[in-house]
Structure formats: C-alpha cells, structure tokens
Write a structure and sequence with these properties.
The complex is a heterodimer of chains A (115) and B (116). By secondary structure, chain A is mostly beta strands. Chain A is built from no helices and twelve strands. With 116 residues, chain B is mainly beta. The chains are: A mainly beta (115), B mainly beta (116).
C-alpha cells in the first residue's frame, strides 16, 4: 500500500524566518509525482509545488523549495522569508504515474506564521 | 478562464435526507475526481470519472454514495440517507485527458456538508 506521512501536526515560525515541513512516503513505484498543497482558512486547496520523481533537481517556486530524497522517500518543503499569508494547513501528496490520477494525501501540518 | 466550480459551497441536511453536490470541471477538462476531507484529516480519494464512465470508484463507500458525470452538465456526487458521519468537505478536481502537464489535477473550492 502507498502511504504518505507528515509527522509534524503543528509548527510555527516567526515572520521572515525559514521553516521546513517534512513528508515521507512509501511506495514500490519507480515513477511518480509529489506535491505540496496549501489549505488556508478559506479551505481552498492551492498547489504550492510539484516534483517529478525522475528529475533529480529539486523543484523551486519563488520562496518555496523542496528537498527530494528519492532513496530515502523523503519530500520536505522549505518556506523562506515566511509571510503571515503562509499561515495554513500544508498537505503532502503522492501520485503514481501508472494507473488513475489517484492522489494520496498526508494528514497535514498546520503552520502558523507569527508576527 | 473559470476554475473548477462546485456548488453548493455549504449544505445542511437532516439525517435521512439526500445530499447532491455538483461540480463543473475547468474548460477543456474531461476528467473529474471527488475527494472527501473529514474534520482534521487529509483528503481521501473517492471516485474518478470521465464523461459517462466511472473509471475508478475504489474510494467510494459501498452504500448510499453514487457519482455520475453525464454527457451534458456537471458531475454529481449523491449521498442518500445522510448520517452525521457524512459531515465533511467534498472536493472536486478536474484534469485534461491523460498526457496533460505534470499529472496535476485542479481542485475546486469544496462543498461543506453538515448533517444535523
């Protein structure tokens, strides 16, 4: 079975500081995609960043970057220069390239950015 | 370019009633997915549909839940005889036909069902 684990239920960070959210996953697939989604208080699911497993280079999107360690099955999200608007739930998700577009989500990390 | 549209955003039903949630995919998208988010949990896959076809319903409860995506009109998630445990956020997502960019699916804003 494929699983996604987010071991930090809650985290906080001071505004302008850097924070790293952890995510590990378990799969026997060799090819897959990994995602981080943000869910602010509005509850909308917003795609933050995406990583393709066959690419060794870590994905970056402005202040957001990932540390993808395929052998360790680890996919952490780093948020630099944290802003108050980054306060949200963050979900890590996995999707194999084979079969249907079935995302598997972790249970989330609640991030609070402190002024 | 309208995103994935879901309605209603909020729905309150008494136990035993039926709930119908609608989803219109993004323009050009022919694949629709439904996910459920129980309080304080991550999203769980329910069903994957294409026009007039259910492709994967492995996440759907065996009873009371059904989904369709007709040739014309929105996708419908139907919950019959709702119980308190059905209270959740139901997210619809859509994607273009397989081969789209990065296997990304695009979520709507969710429909919040409360069963009283």
């Amino acid at each position: 079975a494929q699983t996604v684990t987010q071991s930090q239920p809650e985290m906080s960070v001071q505004e302008a500081e850097t924070v790293t959210l952890s995510c590990t996953y378990d799969t026997s697939e060799s090819n897959y995609y990994l995602f981080w989604y943000k869910q602010p208080p509005s509850r909308q699911m917003i795609l933050v960043i995406r990583q393709e497993a066959y690419k060794q280079q870590n994905a970056t999107e402005n202040r957001f970057s990932v540390n993808f360690q395929k052998a360790a099955k680890s996919f952490s999200l780093k948020i630099s220069d944290s802003q108050l608007g980054d306060t949200a739930m963050y979900f890590c998700a996995f999707m194999p390239t084979s079969g249907t577009y079935k995302y598997i989500f972790g249970t989330g990390t609640r991030l609070k950015v402190l002024a | 370019n309208a995103g994935v549209m879901q309605n209603p955003r909020h729905l309150v039903r008494r136990r035993g009633q039926e709930a119908r949630l609608r989803c219109s995919p993004m323009k050009g998208h022919s694949h629709v997915y439904w996910y459920r988010q129980l309080p304080e949990e991550g999203l769980k896959f329910m069903v994957y549909l294409q026009k007039e076809n259910i492709i994967d319903e492995s996440g759907m409860p065996k009873e009371r839940f059904s989904a369709e995506f007709p040739k014309e009109g929105p996708s419908i998630l139907r919950i019959q005889q709702v119980v308190r445990g059905d209270s959740a956020a139901y997210f619809c997502a859509s994607s273009p036909p397989q081969g789209g960019t990065g296997n990304t699916i695009y979520f709507g804003e969710g429909s919040w069902l409360t069963v009283v």
